[in-house]
Design goal:
By secondary structure, the protein is mainly alpha-helical. The protein is about 75% helix and about 5% strand. The protein has 2 domains: about 150 residues, no CATH class; about 130 residues, no CATH class. The protein contains 14 helices and 2 strands; from the N terminus they run αααααααβααβααααα. Helix 1 runs antiparallel to helix 10, helix 1 crosses helix 11 and helix 10 packs across helix 13. The longest helix has about 35 residues.
């Protein structure tokens, strides 16, 4: 019976340490969604796809030419349609436009957060709308001959699909699990460790083992993060990169998030090691003395 209690207690310690580490990881991811870091990273990855950039340029050019025509400035009649279209589409491929677009994406973080956390949402791609009017008008003004006479145009918002419906549903599912871990992982982990303390019959070294387990699990994830990056942590999750939690991590985590994640895991590992060290000293000092 004592052997069984020892095994169950050890399993509870391991479960508790794992839950605490999960809390550390998930808290960083949830914060990335709330502060807009995640949607910025998702948009950056989308803009690395040349097909998406070309589609944006075409949509903006079509909108600008239609707006100028509605304002009575018929570029097709003047033979300048292709000149303006090429100028706008080329501008859409520039770093300046990319920076301006990402600035608008940052402003849309509330929209992204609402779509990720919505309880009920029909499966659909993640679409972010941008208003390119100011940037396009500035580029038109730079075109010789045309810029001097062209009126200001107000373009309709341009929708940008930054994630497919299937991927976004995986992110939503994974995020719900991560949000749950961020809210309750720490308390569930501590509860598991306390339950292990209640079950075990070897209480003297229990806190040493518990602190060491937390240090090993968190420190192990920290090392994995340093050597293999987020892919390494994803590999430890159920389903790996194909699972919903893995997909959410890969889509949401950025270089900045990795730094925050690394720091948090390091702190948890150090706390665990400190707890183990303190209780090791206590256990050693209070150990029974032979002959007394």
């Amino acid at each position: 019976m004592r052997a069984l209690r020892t095994v169950v207690s050890a399993l509870l310690i391991l479960a508790g340490a794992s839950l605490i580490a999960a809390w550390a990881v998930s808290g960083v991811v949830v914060r990335a969604v709330e502060d807009g870091t995640a949607v910025h990273a998702i948009a950056e990855r989308a803009l690395e796809d040349q097909a998406i950039v070309d589609a944006i340029g075409t949509a903006i050019a079509d909108g600008a030419l239609d707006g100028l025509a509605e304002a009575g400035y018929d570029l097709d009649f003047l033979g300048l349609d292709d000149v303006v279209r090429e100028a706008i589409e080329n501008a859409a491929r520039s770093d300046d436009f990319r920076t301006a677009l990402l600035a608008q994406v940052d402003d849309a973080r509330a929209q992204f957060s609402a779509q990720v956390t919505a309880e009920v949402r029909a499966p659909a791609p993640l679409v972010i709308e941008i208003d390119p009017s100011q940037y396009v008008n500035a580029r038109i003004d730079d075109i010789p001959v045309v810029g001097e006479r062209a009126p200001e145009v107000a373009l309709d918002p341009v929708p940008i699909e930054v994630m497919s419906a299937a991927d976004f549903e995986d992110v939503r599912t994974g995020y719900r699990a991560l949000e749950l871990a961020a809210q309750w992982g720490l308390w569930a982990g501590l509860a598991a460790i306390v339950l292990g303390l209640v079950i075990t019959h070897r209480t003297r070294w229990f806190m040493v083992k518990a602190g060491a387990a937390v240090a090993v699990v968190a420190g192990g994830l920290w090392l994995v993060l340093q050597w293999w990056g987020v892919d390494g942590i994803v590999a430890t999750l159920p389903g790996g990169a194909e699972g919903s939690a893995g997909t959410a991590l890969l889509r949401i985590v950025t270089e900045g998030t990795v730094a925050a994640l690394s720091e948090r895991l390091g702190v948890i590992a150090l706390v665990g090691a400190a707890v183990a060290a303190v209780f090791l000293v206590v256990a050693w000092v209070t150990r029974p003395r032979v002959g007394r």
